[in-house]
């Protein structure tokens, strides 16, 4: 059997070999185009800031230094803000995915007579919203200003996530759900014990979307909790650092914040700070994504069949 496969591979048609070669070249080019911006940003973040101004940095730093990261992490609030970001990402993702899954299951049931009306009402919210001021007034009237819940409650239901999960649920065999009902399971028991385990691929996909959104969000912190330092997040603190760097006259204003005879070697610039912030904000998502990749591809493929 193995010898037959080897002979088949040895005598492949020239057109197949040309296709494989072109495909390999294309994938290599795609890999370079995809990885180069990140590697370039990493190199700039690890390069001495004043030297980075000259340009010419590609895949590795010309003058290696940790000064950019020292400048970012020297802020006293950065570690507490990181903890808040982790907490909001975990709590926001778990609650949002569960609520979206419940809504998706409800409007996927044929016996729910209002499912078409509710679906249209949800979709309309993707095109029209109340606006910034009404949202702020609503959050204030609900008493969520200056609280952790302002990161969780407004984002419990994401219409796009509901549609993706609903499409996946509609593709499940109806016989499985009918069997659960015959065995005496109610709707909630059917949802928790049958539907959720079968929806792991699409739930992992939606979880990745939600986690990235929660982790990268800073505007809601600025809008609702900018006066409450205990609820500040990592992204908001990094944004403030970048703003401070942009308002400084030159890099020597930053260098004066470091003591010692190596001040100039430790100077930072807005460009170097921006690159460092990008790496700091990206690393957690990069570490999580490989564990969800197989579910991500499967969930998007199956969840989009009936979309």
TrEMBL record:
Top-level taxonomic group: Bacteria
Locations listed in the record: Cell membrane
Query: Could you tell me the membrane topology recorded for this protein?
Result: Multi-pass membrane protein
Q: Which Pfam families match?
A: BPD_transp_1 (PF00528)
The alphabetized list of GO BP terms reads:
transmembrane transport
- Write down the CDD domains for this protein, in alphabetical order: TM_PBP2
Please list the residue ranges annotated as the ABC transmembrane type-1 domain.
82-292
Give TM regions.
Answer: 21-39, 78-105, 117-136, 148-169, 190-212, 273-292
User: Any idea which UniProt keywords this protein has?
Assistant: Cell membrane, Membrane, Transmembrane, Transmembrane helix, Transport
The record's Gene Ontology cellular component field reads:
plasma membrane
User: Belongs to which family?
Assistant: Belongs to the binding-protein-dependent transport system permease family.
Protein's name in the database: Sugar ABC transporter permease
């Amino acid at each position: 059997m193995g010898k037959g496969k080897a002979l088949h591979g040895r005598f492949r048609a020239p057109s197949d070999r040309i296709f494989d070669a072109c495909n390999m070249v294309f994938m290599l080019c795609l890999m370079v185009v995809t990885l180069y911006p990140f590697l370039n940003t990493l190199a700039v973040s690890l390069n001495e800031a004043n030297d980075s101004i000259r340009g010419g940095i590609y895949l590795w730093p010309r003058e290696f230094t940790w000064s950019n990261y020292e400048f970012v992490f020297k802020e006293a609030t950065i570690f507490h803000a990181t903890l808040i970001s982790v907490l909001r990402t975990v709590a926001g993702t778990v609650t949002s995915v569960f609520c979206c899954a419940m809504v998706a299951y409800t409007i996927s049931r044929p016996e729910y007579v209002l499912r078409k009306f509710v679906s249209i009402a949800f979709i309309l919210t993707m095109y029209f919203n109340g606006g910034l001021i009404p949202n702020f007034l609503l959050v204030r009237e609900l008493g969520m200003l200056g609280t952790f819940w302002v990161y969780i409650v407004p984002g419990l239901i994401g219409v796009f996530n509901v549609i993706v999960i609903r499409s996946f649920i509609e593709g499940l065999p109806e016989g499985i759900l009918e069997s659960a009902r015959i065995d005496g399971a109610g709707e909630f028991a059917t949802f928790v014990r049958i539907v959720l385990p079968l929806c792991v691929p699409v739930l992992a996909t939606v979880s990745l979307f939600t986690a990235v959104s929660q982790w990268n969000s800073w505007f809601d912190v600025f809008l609702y909790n900018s006066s409450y330092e205990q609820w500040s997040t990592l992204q908001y603190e990094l944004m403030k650092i970048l703003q401070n760097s942009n308002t400084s006259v030159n890099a020597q204003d930053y260098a004066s914040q470091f003591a010692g005879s190596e001040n100039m070697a430790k100077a930072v610039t807005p460009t170097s700070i921006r690159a460092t912030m990008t790496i700091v904000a990206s690393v957690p998502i990069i570490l999580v994504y490989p564990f969800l990749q197989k579910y991500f591809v499967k969930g998007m493929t199956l969840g989009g069949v009936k979309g």
